[in-house]
Amino acid sequence: MTEISKLGEFGLIEHLTKDIKIKNESTKYGVGDDCAVLHYPHSEVLITTDMLMEGVHFDLTYIDMQHLGYKSAMVNISDIFAMNGTPRQMVVSLALSKRFSIEDVEQFYSGLRMACDKWGVDVVGGDTTSSYTGLAISITCIGEAEKDKIVYRNGAKETDLICVSGDLGAAYMGLQLLEREKSVYYQQVNEARKKDDKRALEELAHFQPDFAGKEYLLQRQLQPEARGDILAKLRENNIRPTAMMDISDGLSSELMHICKQSNCGCRIYEKNIPIDYQTAVMAEELNMNVTTCALNGGEDYELLFTVPIGDHEKIEAMDGVKLIGHITRPELGQMLVTFDNNEFELKAQGWNPLR
Amino acid sequence: MTEISKLGEFGLIEHLTKDIKIKNESTKYGVGDDCAVLHYPHSEVLITTDMLMEGVHFDLTYIDMQHLGYKSAMVNISDIFAMNGTPRQMVVSLALSKRFSIEDVEQFYSGLRMACDKWGVDVVGGDTTSSYTGLAISITCIGEAEKDKIVYRNGAKETDLICVSGDLGAAYMGLQLLEREKSVYYQQVNEARKKDDKRALEELAHFQPDFAGKEYLLQRQLQPEARGDILAKLRENNIRPTAMMDISDGLSSELMHICKQSNCGCRIYEKNIPIDYQTAVMAEELNMNVTTCALNGGEDYELLFTVPIGDHEKIEAMDGVKLIGHITRPELGQMLVTFDNNEFELKAQGWNPLR
């Protein structure tokens, strides 16, 4: 018997799907991008799906049901944007153990619908069932796109510019912050128990985690936003990305997907990677390298895309988009140029659910 | 806090979706049928989704991974047929705990693809992730249909004839059989342990459950078939159902969905409910009422549909379809007429209409 971790998520998917032959005219593009693409006369339909398991993808001691609903919907909407599509419909399946109440499910749905309302998405169906073991969430989002406007991962060309929206690493720092406060809490509880200090234990019932000055990190972790606004700006400026995806597993890992599928190399510059002030402060507090966090942190849900070099000035003039490097010939590899002008090969150390 | 069991599955769905307003032109029909219907110029797209949790929906001591893959795909394909659509694509998400190997996942996929190949369905994507607690499966199936050929649950009219394909209750009897053999096995193991009978324990390692003469029941439980063949026959005979759904929760429950959504009553005849010989024998062995099993057993994945009374002769002449009753005015209720001409009101699940 072979352990699944041997192949990892992408290896496993490749292994399972390598000899799938497409049978239907309406199936245009199968496994291997943010969405599958279905072709109908006069419209292309995009489909993406995500499965989130309690304990693996979320921890209900950190996130409440409403934020969880919001985030679950938003990360699927983000996959539709990542193909330059417009999200339209969503089907939602929940499996719930007995500890969840109707109020919990209502909270989840209210968050989910807040995210859907933001982008005009209809909830059209789903499945609600029971589970013996915590909460499982499966969401499928359906979008629409004009045929010649869909952006795949495989369209990057030599000399194209590499761009990212927003800033990176903050969601990961938010998670570190939540984990730190949780461990501070348990440490204090354990100490009070050891000393049998009843008063301290009582006070700990009202423990307030210290998030002052780090609100942005929490927001990025608990309430990510899909960047449909960036797509609108690109359209306004007549910029059409040659390749695009959303950053869910970390910049490094996603960039390597684009390079692999576009058969090219890349060169990005550490000094250009957009990092928020709070992210930098938190990384220093935790004695972590902030660039590593931005490269491998994941859950940013920002857009990573490439544009023709001719769009250089337009991109420079755009708010909320940063030019971080360029596409090269494949034999030049996937390189990070550091502040001190050293070069390192990028490694995908992104979050691996099957590790 | 309110327990979810208070509302039940359908109550919960209704509660959560009652004030959803549809925002997109392409959303034609949302929650409340076998599939959601999306409208695109020149084609309607059907979407259905199902979530299956280990321990709740399946027990891996009864079913192997290949059959599980086959069944998971087939029940989703069945939902597309239930709207008179053609299944086209499927997205598959799996969450796996560490006890599963790559070979297990391969087995699952081989079964899944067998089912998909049977009906020309393309596997176009999905998600593979980890779980702390067993196996979770989420499948979304996408189908196509011509606008005026989609059959909803709400089109049944007074005097329409009620029909079912195949026979009912066998899948439920198959489950009873599997459970019986499992308990026989554990009983023998416990006895041998009590007596410290090492030889008996060794022999029990090669325990062969007794399924002789009951192969059909097992097949119905482990390898259900979606009834696309019945749709083809109906088309050949120029019969267009007025309402239709597939029988996953039991005839009684499904018939009540059709009556509620079509605002009508119904009258079905016990003597007409199609039951296989093996189902009847097994019910007798277990001292169960076979009609109750057929009404409430579930997992048959046969088609339940209504046709105009003018199609009476055509239906009578069709193989594999049985006429079991007719649609009435709503005030006449949903009635079962027994062998001895007594009338009982149908109740969904759990309730025994025959004492």
TrEMBL record, chains A, B:
Binding site for substrate: 57, 299, 351
Pfam family, one: AIRS
GO molecular function, one term: ATP binding
Pathway: Cofactor biosynthesis; thiamine diphosphate biosynthesis; thiamine diphosphate from thiamine phosphate: step 1/1
Residue numbers binding Mg(2+) 3: 34, 79, 246
Entry binding sites for ATP: 109, 126-127, 153, 248
GO biological process: thiamine biosynthetic process; thiamine diphosphate biosynthetic process
Catalytic activity annotation: thiamine phosphate + ATP = thiamine diphosphate + ADP
UniProt binding sites for Mg(2+) 5: 249
EC number(s) per entry: 2.7.4.16
Record-annotated PurM-like N-terminal domain positions: 32-144
Signal peptide: none
Amino acids binding Mg(2+) 1: 49-50, 127
Residues bound to Mg(2+) 4: 34, 48, 79
Keywords: ATP-binding, Kinase, Magnesium, Metal-binding, Nucleotide-binding, Thiamine biosynthesis, Transferase
Entry binding sites for Mg(2+) 2: 50, 79
InterPro entries on file: PurM-like_C_sf, PurM-like_N, PurM-like_N_sf, ThiL-like
Record Gene3D superfamilies: PurM-like C-terminal domain (3.90.650.10), PurM-like, N-terminal domain (3.30.1330.10)
Family according to the record: Belongs to the thiamine-monophosphate kinase family.
More about this protein: Reaction mechanism of ThiL seems to utilize a direct, inline transfer of the gamma-phosphate of ATP to TMP rather than a phosphorylated enzyme intermediate.
Biological role stated in the UniProt entry: Catalyzes the ATP-dependent phosphorylation of thiamine-monophosphate (TMP) to form thiamine-pyrophosphate (TPP), the active form of vitamin B1.
UniProt name for this protein: Thiamine-monophosphate kinase
